[in-house]
Amino acid sequence: MGFLHLHVASSTSFKPETSLQAKRSCPYTVIIKTSCSSTTFTRDQISLAYGDAFGNEVYAKRLDNPASRTFERCSSDKFEINGPCTRNICYLNLLRNGSDGWKPEFVKIYGPHANTVSFNFNTFLPNRVWFGHNLCRGVSAP
């Protein structure tokens, strides 16, 4: 399992912050499992964005590192990411940029203020298009 520390800044958002929690930085552990039916490895650039229904978003511009063998077929990669504190994470998007192709099986996120959340993919990601899951519908602010 690969291991990489990332420090990210929040994305620009036009939503008002709803708590002091949004101004703090929180640690997250992100585990990405590459499918056994993916390409052998990828040199593609992989980006990640996830957040909650209140506009708190964590963005990692590049997770890939071909020198460290990230995102090889049948492997799991672990990333330690610091970013804005979120409540319950309800969306996650991945961006792939390159010509190799890549098929993630799932992404699992562990954070200090929310339950562990898992997003299943098990499909090849399109190139240069944010692709993922948004389960935020129906979530209301307190």
From TrEMBL:
Coiled coil: none annotated. Pfam families: ATS3. SUPFAM superfamilies: Lipase/lipooxygenase domain (PLAT/LH2 domain). Transmembrane segments: none annotated. Gene3D superfamilies: PLAT/LH2 domain (2.60.60.20). InterPro entries: Embryo-specific_ATS3, PLAT/LH2_dom_sf. It comes from the Eukaryota. This is Embryo-specific protein ATS3A. It comes from Prunus armeniaca (Apricot). The lineage of its organism: Eukaryota, Viridiplantae, Streptophyta, Embryophyta, Tracheophyta.
